[in-house]
Amino acid sequence: MAASEENSTLFPIFVLTLMALPLVPYTIVNLFGAFKKKAAKINCQCSVCVRSGKYHKSIFKRISNFSTYSNLTLVLLWVVMAVLVYYIKHISTEVQIFEPFSILGLEHGASDSEIKKAYRRLSIQYHPDKNPDPEAHSYFVEYISKAYQSLTDPISRENFEKYGHPDGRQGLQMGIALPQFLLNIDGASEGILLLGIVGVCIILPLTISVIYLSRSSKYTGNYVMHSTLAAYYHLMKPSLAPSKIMDVFIKASEFMDIPVRRTDEEPLQRIFVLVRSELNLDLKNIRQEQAKFWKQHPALVKTELLLQAQLTRETAALSPTLQRDFRRVLELAPRLLEELMKMAIIPRPPVGHGWLRPAIGVVELTQSVVQAVPLSARKAAGGSSEGYAPFLQLPHFSEAVVKKIARKKVRTFQDFRDMTPDEREDLLTQVAGFSNSESHDVEMVLKMMPSVTIDITCETEGEEGIQEGDIVTMHAWVTLNRGNGLIRALPHCPYFPFDKEENFWLLLADSFSNDVWLSQKVSFMDEATAIIAVSKTIQESKEGSGASAREINVAVKEAIEKVKNGSRLVMGKFQAPADGNYNLSSFCLCDSWIGCDAKSNIKLKVMKRSRAGTRSGLTADETPAMEDGIEEDEEEEEDDYESEYSEDEEDTKETKSKGAVANGSAHNKGSGSTSDESGSEAD
């Protein structure tokens, strides 16, 4: 009985220990991460972002941000631990040691007559015939009778006086810390125990499995519906113009699930009037076009109007209910656009290449949604293929301000970025009428904008050249620099109500054939993960080439240092096409900034495979290239695709490729492009 009570008493301590072992270190790690994030300010500090309240954490916003499933579960577990600690501290049950003399009210060494006298006295008080109380009966049987028997039996008394227990020397006793109702299995408790075992071991796992399977059958790992991916895959076309990407984007099933109310009709009509010029309606048949627009599915009409309200910054006309739907649309937009991008660059038969033109259109739409810039602002104007769209992402800028500074020969965004800070301040204060604080905001945002460079090589591992059918490995170092020295940062986007991380898409493509040979998403937000990945990649690459342990360590250290300085390694493999010269382009497209994309040209030479299966040598005409290792490319036309938001124009300038061909392998180091050399393909 005493052992059973002791085990039952230790059960809360046992549960508390099991909870504390994982909970305490997990909480410490989360708190450390939260304080680390709070210490490093990676968001924009300009006055526009401050006034937007996007990063201002009010008490209600802090509670809302904290109220995630994981955080609430963490708090609940700590509450349970606190209750257990309080219960253990104030527990009333104490394990009583069996002490016969104390039970009978005698001192050690009492005589037999004193023992019998004490027993008779207690029997009158606790015997069932004298006291009908059940507790008295239990006390008499469990304690008084046992104490009397242990002291009247000579052997038991000798054992007690010698070893402290009537049964003699006691060995090590072990028990299990379980509650009393589990240790005493009888009628009622047995049913409860059975129900508990069935519920915890069978019903609960089965319920969780059903919920998980029903959800996983509907959503992908990126929380995008399978029906959405199917629609995007079938609607994506190789010739899809960037201006038509919006029509595909709004076909997501997630947008179709947003309710359409009768009360939304009037505010949507007001928004339609405000954004009508952005809807690509034929002005010659405006009435028919408007009627056709409103005959679409109501969810499609609502989604497109809400997106256009974001692009044109006409959100003041939204009703409170539409404001909630508007935030929902913008919350879904980043991951849906990412999946749409994957559908554009996914390898398609027969050659297994993605499509460049729609991929660029998806990135352009993503940039416009994040920066709240209308698609019409991307039309080429004033010598800039991006139009005045890059200027509109700067604080306090408008189309009127762009026209004012254009009179001072600042016609492109790159011209504006190339100016010194003093020159920009004079231009903005004297020409545009900015105050000193407003020009300071502009300077702050310009320092936040990334500048990207690409160092890319394509080669066949272990061979001197590239032959048709070879597996070609691409190594690309993408390096990011900012004026403020940050690597990990959130973009300036005060009109986008959610935190948005910068992502880059590296594409190796043939602009002429519209083929994307390789694609990879690049992020600069997680340095630790990048270090682990680059260390593993470099080590495996060097081991495969037979390098020594010292050479591997040196190469890994150099790669880690590059990552810490703002570089990321991107690797990919593709099969070499038929023999010939290929003028490829590498694009590094940013999904958060307009005019910060990078592009470089690379010339890939593929040699014909010999009949014997050996590598054919170079001809006499190619000997100088083999000796020098570098061959300058001829002047090439700019690009094959202009942004569909731009009007057809003649090329204003020609670019010179810095690509190289050496023994059939290609190498290129490209710098970050200006706004005229962005992923809009109007470079």
Report on the architecture of this protein.
- This protein has 683 residues and is an alpha+beta fold.
- The protein folds into five domains: 1-92; 100-163, DnaJ domain (Helix Hairpins), CATH 1.10.287.110; 185-219; 227-387, Sec63 N-terminal domain-like fold; 450-606, Immunoglobulin-like (Sandwich).
- 49% of the residues lie in helices and 11% in strands.
- It has 26 helices and ten strands.
- It has helices at 2-39, 47-52, 59-66, 69-89, 100-104, 112-126, 134-152, 154-163, 180-183, 187-216, 226-235, 245-249, 253-256, 265-275, 286-294, 298-312, 320-345, 356-371, 389-392, 399-406, 413-418, 421-430, 436-448, 527-544, 549-564, 623-628, and strands at residues 354-355, 451-459, 471-481, 504-510, 515-522, 567-575, 580-590, 598-606, 660-662, 665-670.
- A five-stranded antiparallel beta sheet has the order 1-5-4-7-8. Strands 6-3-2-10-9 form a five-stranded antiparallel beta sheet.
- Strand 9 (660-662) and strand 10 form a beta hairpin.
- Residues 616-665 and 673-683 have low confidence and may be disordered.
Short overview:
With 683 residues, the chain is an alpha+beta fold. The chain folds into five domains: 1-92; 100-163, DnaJ domain (Helix Hairpins), CATH 1.10.287; 185-219; 227-387, Orthogonal Bundle (Sec63 N-terminal domain-like fold), CATH 1.10.3380; 450-606, Immunoglobulin-like, CATH 2.60.40.
What topology does this entry show?
Layout: H1 2-39, H2 47-52, H3 59-66, H4 69-89, H5 100-104, H6 112-126, H7 134-152, H8 154-163, H9 180-183, H10 187-216, H11 226-235, H12 245-249, H13 253-256, H14 265-275, H15 286-294, H16 298-312, H17 320-345, E1 354-355, H18 356-371, H19 389-392, H20 399-406, H21 413-418, H22 421-430, H23 436-448, E2 451-459, E3 471-481, E4 504-510, E5 515-522, H24 527-544, H25 549-564, E6 567-575, E7 580-590, E8 598-606, H26 623-628, E9 660-662, E10 665-670
Antiparallel strand pairs: 1-5, 2-3, 2-10, 3-6, 4-5, 4-7, 7-8, 9-10
Helix pairs in contact: 1-4, 6-7, 7-8, 14-16, 16-17, 17-18, 22-23, 24-25
